[in-house]
Write a structure and sequence with these properties.
By secondary structure, the chain is α+β, with helices and mostly antiparallel strands. The chain is built from nine helices and seven strands. The protein is 59% helix and 12% strand. A hairpin with a 2-residue loop joins strand 4 and strand 5. It starts with a helix and ends with a strand.
Length: 369
C-alpha cells in the first residue's frame, strides 16, 4: 500500500504543478498581448486581473469544496453548486463591467500622459460617442469569463477524477496480487501435509522390513522437508533443486514397492539454468504413486522432463488401478495443481489429463520457463 500512496502523491504533485503553470500563464496573457510601444497600460491589465481573480476564486471553491462532494456521490448537489457559482460569477462580471467608474486602484494608476481618445487615422473621422456610453461589443464582456471558468473547472475536475481513478485502480491491482499470493500460499501449504502424510506411511511400512533403509529414508525425508519448508517458500526455485527433490521423492517411494513396479525417470543429464515454481509437478507424481501402483497387478510409472525453446514439457504415464472406494482426500493434489497453474500462468500453459485408456492415466503439462 506504500507504493500506492507514493504514486498517488506524485500524481497530486503533477496536478498541482500543471494548474500553477496554467494560472501563471493566464495572468501573464494580458502582459504578453499588450502593445508595448507606448508602455503597458496598467489600468487595463489590472482590470483584467481582477476579472480573472473572480474566476480563480470560483476555481478554488470548486477544487476544495465542491468536487469532494462529487466524489462522495452527491453529483446532483455538485452540479447545482457549480451552476450557482457560475451564475454569481457572471453577475459579478456584469456589475463590474457596467460600472461607469473604474476601481480606485485603477484610478490611482491612470497615467496622465494617456489620452482618452485616439487621434484620427488619416482622414477618417473619429466616431462620436456620448459621454459614459461604452462601445458595442459583439460578445458580452462576461462571455469570456464564463467560458474560461467552465474550461478551467472542467479541466481541474477531470484531473482530480483521473487521480482518484488511478488510485482506485492501483489499489485494485495490489489487492488482486495479495489475493493471488494468499491463494498460492494456501494451496502450497495443502501440498506439504498431503505429501508428508503419504511419505510417513511409506516409512512406517519400511521399518518392519529393513531398519537401515528406514533410517536412510528418514534422513532423506528430513532433507526433503527442509526443501519444502524453506526453499519452496520462494516464488521460483532453480530447476536443479526441483529435480533433485523429485529424484529424492521417487527413490523414497520406490523403497516401499518391489521390483515388479516399473519406475522410470527420464531427465536430461544437463539441466538449463532456469527457475520454476516450486512443487509444481510433485502433485502429479504423487498421484501416480497413489493410484498407479497395485500389489496384485503389474504397475508402471514413467516420468519425463523436456526443455525446449523456452518451455518445459512434463509428461507422466502410470498404470491405472481403479479403486471401489475412494478416500475423501482423493483428487486433492490434482485439483491444487490445476488451481496453482491457473493462478501462476493464467492462459499461458497447457494441461492435458487423459484417461481414455482404462488401464493408463496420462498427464501432459507445457509451461513457459
Amino acid at each position: 500500500m506504500k507504493s500506492i500512496t507514493i504514486r498517488n502523491k506524485n500524481f497530486g504533485n503533477v496536478q498541482f504543478l500543471i494548474m500553477v503553470f496554467i494560472w501563471i500563464l493566464i495572468f501573464a496573457i494580458p502582459l504578453l498581448t499588450t502593445d508595448t510601444t507606448e508602455g503597458i497600460v496598467w489600468p487595463h491589465v489590472i482590470k483584467i486581473w481582477i476579472e480573472y481573480g473572480f474566476v480563480f476564486i470560483a476555481f478554488l471553491i470548486n477544487h476544495f469544496l465542491l468536487f469532494p462532494q462529487f466524489l462522495k456521490g452527491k453529483r446532483v448537489l455538485y452540479f447545482i453548486s457549480v451552476l450557482c457559482i457560475l451564475t454569481i460569477l457572471v453577475l459579478v462580471a456584469i456589475f463590474f463591467n457596467a460600472s461607469d467608474n473604474p476601481p480606485d486602484i485603477i484610478q490611482r494608476m491612470q497615467p496622465e500622459s494617456i489620452e482618452r481618445t485616439q487621434p484620427p487615422i488619416g482622414n477618417q473621422p473619429v466616431p462620436h460617442r456620448p459621454p459614459g456610453q461604452r462601445p458595442r461589443e459583439a460578445f458580452p464582456p462576461f462571455g469570456n469569463l464564463l467560458i474560461m471558468s467552465i474550461l478551467l473547472i472542467g479541466f481541474d475536475a477531470g484531473l482530480s477524477f483521473a487521480g482518484k481513478w488511478l488510485n482506485a485502480e492501483q489499489k485494485k491491482i495490489i489487492l488482486e496480487k495479495e489475493n493471488v499470493e494468499h491463494k498460492m500460499a494456501f494451496l502450497q501449504n495443502q501440498v506439504s501435509p498431503h505429501f508428508f502424510m503419504n511419505t510417513l506411511n511409506n516409512i512406517h511400512a519400511l521399518v518392519d522390513i529393513d531398519t537401515e533403509e528406514a533410517k536412510e529414508a528418514i534422513i532423506r525425508l528430513s532433507q526433503m522437508m527442509a526443501y519444502m519448508l524453506y526453499e519452496s517458500q520462494t516464488e521460483k526455485i532453480s530447476i536443479q533443486k526441483e529435480i533433485d527433490f523429485i529424484k529424492s521423492y521417487v527413490e523414497l517411494m520406490k523403497l516401499r514397492f518391489s521390483e515388479e513396479v516399473e519406475v522410470k525417470l527420464d531427465i536430461p543429464k544437463t539441466l538449463p539454468e532456469i527457475s520454476v515454481p516450486p512443487l509444481l509437478t510433485i502433485s502429479f507424481i504423487e498421484n501416480a504413486f497413489k493410484h498407479g501402483v497395485s500389489y496384485e497387478a503389474s504397475s508402471f510409472i514413467h516420468v519425463k522432463y523436456v526443455f525446449k525453446k523456452g518451455r518445459m514439457y512434463f509428461e507422466i504415464k502410470n498404470s491405472n488401478h481403479s479403486k471401489q472406494k475412494k478416500s475423501s482426500n482423493s483428487g486433492i493434489g490434482l485439483e491444487n495443481a490445476r488451481k496453482r497453474l491457473a493462478l501462476i500462468y493464467t492462459n499461458n500453459y497447457e494441461l492435458d489429463i487423459n484417461q481414455n485408456d482404462k488401464n493408463i492415466f496420462k498427464v501432459n503439462l507445457n509451461i513457459p520457463v
